[in-house]
Write a structure and sequence with these properties.
Layout: E1 2-5, H1 13-29, E2 33-36, H2 43-52, E3 54-57, E4 69-71, H3 78-86, E5 91-93, H4 97-111, E6 115-119, H5 125-131, E7 138-141, H6 144-148, E8 158-162, H7 168-181, H8 195-208, E9 213-217, H9 223-234, E10 238-242, E11 258-263, H10 269-281, E12 286-289, H11 306-312
Helix pairs in contact: 8-9
């Protein structure tokens, strides 16, 4: 049995930045540092940061006066930020810069008098944060059927933005449906959709041509990890989303000559390597890396932590 690793896989620049923000905050201010919701959707990451002194809370009222407060990579609504300011909580914003870019684009459209169509998944933290950042009318859609059911105030004054963890391929049919129904709608260039999401999905498509089964390392509540599994299945390859190597069922590998492995954008590489070790225990004799995109994106630290980052270099 051969193992083929997707490239790229695992952490993206936004996730790396968010985790580093919590670590730098702990170094600079000491424990505890309070993080609203999971910093990223991965239990292993959250547990590691908790062991270092991070405390994860659901709401701001769980944070004591003066507690260092970190917003997760998914972003928060204006209401949440206003509440933190009202309580004089010291805020460090770990929102992914690509998510912030969507916020700014959407508000720019709204400021020009346009209503916003947000393409995304209802209930996802990023979607909740984006909807709560737009001062204006927002319609949420996820499928072409949602577009068909839309009742808008003014079809001539519409713009759309998308959840970053959806790829160009994920959104194409919805954008096409929007443009067909509302010919005057405007929106960002597709290059504004998250590069990491697109790269990881393309790598999985390439992987499906070479393997009999695909294992996706990631959390069950991770949107982009679930999508990787779905894409493999759509391409006709059996796929399983697993939190780590301990939940691998050897029966999934029966008859497989080649096993593909990838990881969602919030899954650390050590989980991939532990899975590879487990596959070796189960008889894998060779491990290859699929040729793919080299990602060298790095996002700046927030100004509050720039000195802490510089000190570590």
């Amino acid at each position: 049995m051969k193992v083929i690793l997707a490239k790229p896989r695992g952490f993206c620049a936004g996730v790396e930045r968010a985790i580093e923000i919590v670590e730098r905050a702990l170094e600079k201010y000491g424990a505890p540092v309070y993080v609203r919701h999971e910093i990223v959707h991965n239990r292993h990451v959250v547990d590691s940061l908790r062991a270092k002194g991070a405390r994860f809370v659901d709401e701001l009222d769980e944070i004591p006066p003066g507690g260092i407060t970190v917003f997760s990579a998914h972003g928060v609504s204006q209401k949440v930020e206003d509440e933190a300011v009202l309580r004089s909580l010291p805020i460090i914003d770990a929102t992914c810069p690509l998510v912030s870019k969507v916020h700014h684009e959407a508000q720019r459209y709204a400021d020009s008098g346009r209503d916003i169509v947000l393409i995304g998944h209802d209930g996802h933290p990023e979607v909740e944060g984006t909807m709560g950042r737009i001062d204006g009318k927002v319609y949420l859609v996820a499928t072409p059927d949602d577009v068909a059911a839309l009742n808008v105030r003014d079809p001539a004054r519409l713009s759309y933005v998308t959840q970053t963890t959806l790829s160009v391929d994920d959104t194409r049919s919805v954008i096409d449906a929007l443009k067909e129904r509302f010919p005057q709608i405007t929106g960002p260039d597709t290059k504004d959709i998250c590069y990491a999401t697109q790269n990881r999905q393309r790598a999985v498509r390439d992987l499906t041509k070479l393997v009999d089964v695909i294992l996706v390392v990631g959390a069950q509540n991770s949107s982009n990890s679930n999508r990787l599994k779905e894409i493999a299945a759509e391409m006709g390859v059996k796929a399983y989303l697993i939190a780590d190597a301990t939940v691998l069922d050897p029966a999934w590998l029966d008859g497989a000559n080649a096993v593909g492995v990838t990881a969602g954008a919030s899954a650390p590489e050590h989980l991939v390597q532990e899975l590879v070790d487990r596959l070796r225990d189960l008889g894998a004799t060779a491990v290859e890396i699929l040729p793919g995109v080299d990602e060298n994106v790095r996002f700046k630290m927030p100004p509050e932590l720039a000195d802490a980052a510089d000190a570590s270099v």
